[in-house]
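Tutorial, part two.
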Amino acid sequence: MMAEKRLGRGLAALIGDVGEEGEPVVKRRASIEALRPNPRNPRKSFSAGELDELATSIKERGVIQPIVVRAVAGARDGYEIIAGERRWRAAQRAGLHEVPIAVVEATDKQALEFAIIENVQRADLNPIEEASGYHALIEEHGHSQDEVAQIVGKSRPHVANTIRLLKLPEPVKVLLRAGKLSAGHARLLVGEADAERIAQRIVDTGMSVRQLESEMRKSGVITPQGPSRSSAPAKDADTVALERKLSNVLGLDVSIDHRGASGTLHIKYKDLDQLDAVLRKLGG
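Running the prediction step on this input gives:
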C-alpha cells in the first residue's frame, strides 16, 4: 500500500502530491467539526500555553501544513486525525471553521505508526507517551523492536530503553509526564526498590543525571556498565575467590569491581555495630 511504503520517509512523503506508485493524496478543506481525534494517538498531553501560542500564529497565517486524516467508515464527510491533532486543537482556539486536510488510506496500525512518527520527529511526546506508543506497536501490531526503531528513525537500544520506563512506579511516571524528571534520570531508576523516594529527591534538589549516576555507583546500586549489577560483565575466578576470602574474614558481603589496574571495593553492612566491627578489623 502507498502509505506503508512511505512510512520510513516520514510525513513529508506521506502528504506529497503524488505517491511512489502515482496515486494522488487527496487534499481539500474540511469543516473543523468533521474531524475527530484518533483515540490511539500516543500523545495525551496538550498544554494550554502551547496551544494558545500556536493559535496566535494560526490567526495570522492560517494552518499551513494540512492535517493528515483518514475517512471514518460509515460516516459521510467524517475524518479521523492521523497526524496534526495539535494544529486542529489550536485552530479551534483560533476560531477557524475550516482547515486543510490530506486524506490518505491507512489501517489502524499505520495510523498509530504515523502518529508516533510525527510526534517523535517533533519531540512532542513525553517519555511515557513515547514508551506507550512503542509498546502498542509491539504488543498490538506485532512489530519487533528493530522494526519499531526503523519506523521512527531511532536506534534499537533507544526503543528498548524507552519501553523499560513503563516498569516504573506510577508516582515516578507522573513526575516524568510532568517534565519534572528526565528520561535519563528515569532510566537509572528502573528496577530500583526505592525509586519513588529517589525520584522525589531528584526533583527537590535538582540533581543532574551525572550526579545521580555517580552517587548510585558509589553506593553500589549501579555499575558503570548500566543500571543493575546483573548487566555487569562476568567476573573472573580470581576476583570471585578474593571476594569470598574477604567475606569470610569480615563476615560481611564483599564485592570487587576490577577495571584494569584499578577498581572499587564494596563492603555491605546492615547496622552501625557491623560497621564498627569492620573498622576494628581494618584498624587491627
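Confidence is low (pLDDT under 50) at residues 1-24, 222-232. In part three we will examine how such features are distributed along the chain.
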